[in-house]
Amino acid sequence: SFDVVTLWDVIEHVNFPFSTLRSAANMLKSGGILLIDTPFRDGFYHRMGEFTYWLSRGRYPTFLNTMYSSHLFGHKQILSLSEMREMLEAVGLELMELRKFHELSFPYNFYLKKMFKSDLIVKLILPVVHVILTLFPIRNKMLAVGRKKNNYDSCPIQLKASLINEFLNRRIIPHPLSSYRQARGGGKKTE
Asked: In DSSP terms, which residues pair with 145 in a beta bridge?
Protein backbone atom coordinates (compact mmCIF):
# COMPACT_ATOMS: atom_id res chain seq x y z
CA SER A 1 0.00 0.00 0.00
CA PHE A 2 1.12 3.53 -0.82
CA ASP A 3 0.41 7.00 0.58
CA VAL A 4 0.39 8.50 -2.93
CA VAL A 5 -0.15 7.08 -6.42
CA THR A 6 0.23 9.24 -9.54
CA LEU A 7 -1.10 8.79 -13.04
CA TRP A 8 0.57 11.58 -15.03
CA ASP A 9 -0.77 11.52 -18.59
CA VAL A 10 -1.74 7.86 -18.32
CA ILE A 11 -5.50 7.41 -18.12
CA GLU A 12 -6.12 8.65 -21.66
CA HIS A 13 -3.76 5.97 -23.04
CA VAL A 14 -5.17 2.84 -21.40
CA ASN A 15 -7.76 0.51 -22.88
CA PHE A 16 -9.69 0.12 -19.61
CA PRO A 17 -9.63 3.42 -17.68
CA PHE A 18 -12.08 2.32 -14.97
CA SER A 19 -10.05 -0.82 -14.22
CA THR A 20 -6.88 1.27 -14.13
CA LEU A 21 -8.41 3.70 -11.62
CA ARG A 22 -9.75 0.84 -9.51
CA SER A 23 -6.28 -0.77 -9.43
CA ALA A 24 -4.65 2.54 -8.48
CA ALA A 25 -7.23 3.09 -5.72
CA ASN A 26 -6.64 -0.43 -4.40
CA MET A 27 -2.92 0.33 -4.08
CA LEU A 28 -3.60 3.26 -1.73
CA LYS A 29 -3.42 3.10 2.04
CA SER A 30 -6.43 4.33 3.96
CA GLY A 31 -6.47 8.11 3.45
CA GLY A 32 -3.97 7.83 0.57
CA ILE A 33 -4.05 10.22 -2.37
CA LEU A 34 -4.37 9.53 -6.10
CA LEU A 35 -3.16 12.32 -8.39
CA ILE A 36 -4.14 12.28 -12.07
CA ASP A 37 -3.40 14.71 -14.86
CA THR A 38 -5.00 14.20 -18.25
CA PRO A 39 -6.57 16.17 -21.10
CA PHE A 40 -10.27 16.82 -20.65
CA ARG A 41 -13.10 16.77 -23.13
CA ASP A 42 -14.90 19.86 -21.79
CA GLY A 43 -12.21 22.27 -22.98
CA PHE A 44 -11.69 24.48 -26.01
CA TYR A 45 -9.45 22.15 -28.03
CA HIS A 46 -11.87 19.25 -27.94
CA ARG A 47 -14.99 21.35 -28.55
CA MET A 48 -13.34 23.25 -31.41
CA GLY A 49 -12.29 19.92 -32.92
CA GLU A 50 -15.83 18.58 -32.69
CA PHE A 51 -17.19 21.77 -34.28
CA THR A 52 -14.73 21.81 -37.21
CA TYR A 53 -15.27 18.08 -37.70
CA TRP A 54 -19.03 18.63 -37.87
CA LEU A 55 -18.73 21.75 -40.04
CA SER A 56 -16.41 20.08 -42.56
CA ARG A 57 -18.22 16.73 -42.40
CA GLY A 58 -15.10 15.03 -41.09
CA ARG A 59 -12.58 16.50 -43.53
CA TYR A 60 -11.03 18.99 -41.09
CA PRO A 61 -11.06 17.79 -37.47
CA THR A 62 -8.47 20.39 -36.30
CA PHE A 63 -7.62 19.32 -32.76
CA LEU A 64 -9.35 15.93 -32.69
CA ASN A 65 -6.67 14.33 -34.83
CA THR A 66 -4.04 15.36 -32.28
CA MET A 67 -6.13 14.24 -29.30
CA TYR A 68 -7.00 10.74 -30.53
CA SER A 69 -4.75 8.27 -32.26
CA SER A 70 -4.91 4.79 -33.67
CA HIS A 71 -1.24 4.46 -32.67
CA LEU A 72 -0.65 1.63 -30.19
CA PHE A 73 0.11 4.03 -27.33
CA GLY A 74 -2.04 6.96 -28.52
CA HIS A 75 -5.00 8.50 -26.75
CA LYS A 76 -7.84 6.01 -26.51
CA GLN A 77 -10.31 8.34 -24.79
CA ILE A 78 -10.50 11.83 -23.36
CA LEU A 79 -12.64 12.06 -20.23
CA SER A 80 -14.92 14.92 -19.26
CA LEU A 81 -14.68 16.51 -15.83
CA SER A 82 -17.94 14.84 -14.77
CA GLU A 83 -16.76 11.42 -16.01
CA MET A 84 -13.57 11.76 -13.98
CA ARG A 85 -15.55 12.75 -10.89
CA GLU A 86 -17.95 9.82 -11.32
CA MET A 87 -15.15 7.30 -11.91
CA LEU A 88 -13.16 8.43 -8.86
CA GLU A 89 -16.23 8.16 -6.66
CA ALA A 90 -17.15 4.77 -8.17
CA VAL A 91 -13.75 3.32 -7.17
CA GLY A 92 -14.20 4.54 -3.59
CA LEU A 93 -12.24 7.79 -3.67
CA GLU A 94 -13.38 11.11 -2.30
CA LEU A 95 -12.81 13.91 -4.82
CA MET A 96 -10.54 16.46 -3.15
CA GLU A 97 -9.68 18.61 -6.17
CA LEU A 98 -10.62 18.87 -9.81
CA ARG A 99 -8.69 21.73 -11.39
CA LYS A 100 -8.26 22.81 -15.02
CA PHE A 101 -4.92 24.13 -16.25
CA HIS A 102 -2.97 24.81 -19.45
CA GLU A 103 -0.27 22.48 -20.68
CA LEU A 104 0.88 21.12 -24.00
CA SER A 105 3.04 18.02 -24.27
CA PHE A 106 4.91 19.33 -27.31
CA PRO A 107 5.85 22.77 -28.67
CA TYR A 108 3.10 24.68 -30.47
CA ASN A 109 4.72 24.18 -33.87
CA PHE A 110 4.31 20.40 -33.52
CA TYR A 111 0.52 20.75 -33.29
CA LEU A 112 0.35 23.43 -35.98
CA LYS A 113 2.35 21.29 -38.40
CA LYS A 114 0.03 18.37 -37.71
CA MET A 115 -2.98 20.58 -38.43
CA PHE A 116 -1.75 22.54 -41.47
CA LYS A 117 0.91 20.19 -42.89
CA SER A 118 2.92 23.17 -44.15
CA ASP A 119 6.17 24.54 -42.72
CA LEU A 120 5.48 27.93 -44.30
CA ILE A 121 2.04 28.33 -42.71
CA VAL A 122 3.43 27.20 -39.35
CA LYS A 123 6.29 29.70 -39.61
CA LEU A 124 3.85 32.52 -40.40
CA ILE A 125 1.27 31.87 -37.70
CA LEU A 126 3.49 30.57 -34.88
CA PRO A 127 4.31 34.05 -33.46
CA VAL A 128 0.61 34.93 -33.40
CA VAL A 129 -0.24 31.66 -31.65
CA HIS A 130 2.46 32.32 -29.02
CA VAL A 131 1.04 35.76 -28.25
CA ILE A 132 -2.57 34.57 -28.11
CA LEU A 133 -1.82 31.59 -25.86
CA THR A 134 0.40 33.69 -23.61
CA LEU A 135 -2.37 36.26 -23.14
CA PHE A 136 -5.17 33.69 -23.01
CA PRO A 137 -3.87 30.32 -21.81
CA ILE A 138 -6.47 27.74 -22.77
CA ARG A 139 -7.07 25.24 -20.01
CA ASN A 140 -6.90 21.90 -21.74
CA LYS A 141 -5.85 19.54 -18.94
CA MET A 142 -7.27 18.55 -15.60
CA LEU A 143 -5.68 17.71 -12.29
CA ALA A 144 -7.84 15.30 -10.31
CA VAL A 145 -7.02 14.51 -6.69
CA GLY A 146 -8.84 11.70 -4.96
CA ARG A 147 -8.43 10.46 -1.41
CA LYS A 148 -9.18 6.92 -0.38
CA LYS A 149 -12.13 6.99 1.99
CA ASN A 150 -11.68 5.23 5.35
CA ASN A 151 -9.76 6.91 8.13
CA TYR A 152 -9.96 10.41 6.64
CA ASP A 153 -7.39 12.00 8.96
CA SER A 154 -4.51 9.63 8.19
CA CYS A 155 -3.24 11.97 5.44
CA PRO A 156 -3.12 15.64 6.49
CA ILE A 157 -4.64 18.31 4.25
CA GLN A 158 -1.21 20.01 4.13
CA LEU A 159 0.16 17.00 2.24
CA LYS A 160 -2.61 17.35 -0.34
CA ALA A 161 -1.84 21.06 -0.83
CA SER A 162 1.90 20.45 -1.11
CA LEU A 163 1.39 17.65 -3.66
CA ILE A 164 -0.84 19.85 -5.83
CA ASN A 165 1.67 22.70 -5.67
CA GLU A 166 4.56 20.37 -6.52
CA PHE A 167 2.62 19.05 -9.50
CA LEU A 168 1.82 22.54 -10.79
CA ASN A 169 5.41 23.72 -10.26
CA ARG A 170 6.83 20.90 -12.42
CA ARG A 171 4.79 21.92 -15.47
CA ILE A 172 6.53 23.39 -18.50
CA ILE A 173 3.94 26.12 -19.02
CA PRO A 174 3.21 28.42 -16.05
CA HIS A 175 0.03 27.60 -14.21
CA PRO A 176 -2.67 30.15 -13.32
CA LEU A 177 -1.20 30.85 -9.87
CA SER A 178 2.24 31.84 -11.20
CA SER A 179 1.40 35.58 -11.32
CA TYR A 180 -0.09 35.31 -7.82
CA ARG A 181 3.09 33.63 -6.55
CA GLN A 182 5.30 36.31 -8.16
CA ALA A 183 3.18 39.07 -6.62
CA ARG A 184 3.79 37.50 -3.20
CA GLY A 185 7.55 37.54 -3.82
CA GLY A 186 8.03 33.99 -5.05
CA GLY A 187 10.55 33.47 -7.84
CA LYS A 188 10.24 31.52 -11.03
CA LYS A 189 11.26 27.89 -10.88
CA THR A 190 14.12 27.02 -13.20
CA GLU A 191 15.12 23.56 -14.24
From this structure: 35, 97
